């Protein structure tokens, strides 16, 4: 998990930020990104792709990363922004905001399969959250941050089951949208695709 970091440290760069986002595929809610700078050489044995970890383990590692990190930045792109510029650009914007929140400014970015629109040397790593400790740490921070936001959204919109599905297009979520309609936090451009798919299933 430190192979990418080691190659960059060997170039003399010490301040590496891992960057990742969560919520890109959701029907509901903001997209959230995190940027994490860990001390050179630090090994966090259990840090891995956040999707492979239980919620309890993610929370534990979130606290560990918060304690050990040199810096953590969080970036958010809200639903109106997602609707206006599309989800890919919104995810990239959230990543940029996360990096802008770092102090010190990193001298290298390891990014999960994306490019951050900033004049900082960087590498896009496919499946980076499973290959780089820095990106994995960012994926955990982003996931826990957004999951906590989902708990608040659950209070605001209790009939939709947000705390269970986190805004993804599960059967329960789609049924609740059909039953109760869309909220201001539903991504209307995403819901159009759900409607089209439902019509196609009825036709065929």
UniProtKB/TrEMBL annotation:
Q: Name one GO cellular component term.
A: cytoplasm
Q: Which UniProt keywords apply?
A: Cytoplasm, Endonuclease, Hydrolase, Manganese, Metal-binding, Nuclease
Q: What does the entry comment about cofactor binding? A: Manganese or magnesium. Binds 1 divalent metal ion per monomer in the absence of substrate. May bind a second metal ion after substrate binding.
Binding residue positions for a divalent metal cation: 20-21, 112
Which InterPro entries does the record cross-reference, listed alphabetically?
A: RNase_HII, RNase_HII/HIII, RNase_HII/HIII_dom, RNaseH-like_sf, RNaseH_sf
- Residue ranges of the RNase H type-2 domain? 14-204
Q: Which residues form a coiled coil?
A: none
SUPFAM superfamilies assigned: Ribonuclease H-like
Group of enzyme by EC: hydrolase
The EC number(s) this enzyme carries? 3.1.26.4
Where does it reside? Answer: Cytoplasm
GO terms assigned for molecular function: manganese ion binding; RNA binding; RNA-DNA hybrid ribonuclease activity
| Lineage: superkingdom | Bacteria
Cofactor(s), names only, from the UniProt record: Mg(2+); Mn(2+)
Q: Which GO terms describe its biological process?
A: DNA replication, removal of RNA primer; mismatch repair
- Give the catalytic activity: Endonucleolytic cleavage to 5'-phosphomonoester
Q: What is its main location?
A: cytoplasm
Q: One matching Pfam family, short form?
A: RNase_HII
The reply on keyword Nucleotide-binding is: no
What the entry lists under PANTHER family is as follows: RIBONUCLEASE H2 SUBUNIT A (PTHR10954), RIBONUCLEASE HII (PTHR10954:SF18)
The role this protein plays is: Endonuclease that specifically degrades the RNA of RNA-DNA hybrids.
Task: Tell me which family the UniProt entry assigns to this protein.
Answer: Belongs to the RNase HII family.
In Swiss-Prot or TrEMBL terms, this protein is called Ribonuclease HII
């Amino acid at each position: 998990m430190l192979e990418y970091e080691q190659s960059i440290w060997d170039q003399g760069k010490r301040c590496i930020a891992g960057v990742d986002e969560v919520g890109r595929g959701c029907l509901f809610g903001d997209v959230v990104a995190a940027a994490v700078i860990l001390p050179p050489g630090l090994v966090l044995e259990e840090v891995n792709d956040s999707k492979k970890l239980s919620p309890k383990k993610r929370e534990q590692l979130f606290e560990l990363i918060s304690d050990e990190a040199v810096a953590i930045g969080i970036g958010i792109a809200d639903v109106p922004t997602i609707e206006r510029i599309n989800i890919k650009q919104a995810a990239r914007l959230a990543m940029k905001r996360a990096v802008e929140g770092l102090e010190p400014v990193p001298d290298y970015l390891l990014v999960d399969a994306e490019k951050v629109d900033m004049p900082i040397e960087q590498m896009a790593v496919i499946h980076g959250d499973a290959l780089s400790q820095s990106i994995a740490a960012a994926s955990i921070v982003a996931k826990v941050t957004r999951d906590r936001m989902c708990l608040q959204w659950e209070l605001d919109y209790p009939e939709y089951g947000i705390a269970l599905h986190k805004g993804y297009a599960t059967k329960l979520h789609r049924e609740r949208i059909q039953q109760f309609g869309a909220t201001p936090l539903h991504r209307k451009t995403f819901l159009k695709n759900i409607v089209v798919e439902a019509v196609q299933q009825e036709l065929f």
